[in-house]
Structures are given as C-alpha cells and as structure tokens.
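Appendix B. Worked example

We walk through a single record from start to finish. Start with the input: the chain for Replication initiation control protein YabA, Ligilactobacillus faecis, length 116.
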Amino acid sequence: MDKRELYDNFENIEEMSRQMQVRLTDVKAEMTRIIEKNAELEIENQHLRELLRELEQKKHKEEAGIEAGLSKSRKNLEKLYEEGFHVCNVDNMYGSRRINDEPCVFCQDVIYGERN
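Next comes the structure step. The output line below is what the pipeline stores for this chain.
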C-alpha cells in the first residue's frame, strides 16, 4: 500500500464519519420529535380518560335517577312550595301556608340543598 492509497483510505473513512454524524444528528432530531409527540399524546390521553370517567359517572347518576336537575320528589316539593306551602319540617311547619308567601330558607334547603 502506497502513501496515496493510505491517504485516500483516510479520506474515505473521514467522509463516512461525516455522513454518519449527519445521520446521527437526523436520528437524534427525529427521536426528540417523537418523544415530544408522545408526551403530548399522553397528556391528551389522560384528559380524555378524565372526561370519559366524568361522562360515565354522569350517565350512572342519570340511570340511578339522580339527574343534574331536581329529582321527581324534589320537583313535587318545589311545586308545593311555589303554591305557598312549607315543605320543611322546622317547628312542624310542613304543609302549612307560608304567610304572605314569604321565602323560607329551610324549605329552599330541602328542595335545592345538596344531599349525600
């Protein structure tokens, strides 16, 4: 092997090394893009799972008769209250007329209050 062949071989190896460096840079950039996209998809997937869980809970409540609004019995109490009667049991007021149709916070709590 003469000096010229040896030099050409080194030139070829150096060129192959540059090409490999370019390929490695491209692969690294693509890997970074894939990792970022994966993180985005994981976050979106988590949000969708939470939304699905909420929708399933809402559906389950509706099937159990617990609507987003008032239940049938609370609607009946609301109707009685709007007609001017107490629906609370404070001081045995249930069923008695509200004086001058004044609001009663106890009745409103019975109708609209949260129940466990």
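Two observations about the output. The mean pLDDT is 87. Helices lie at 3-63, 72-82, 105-112.
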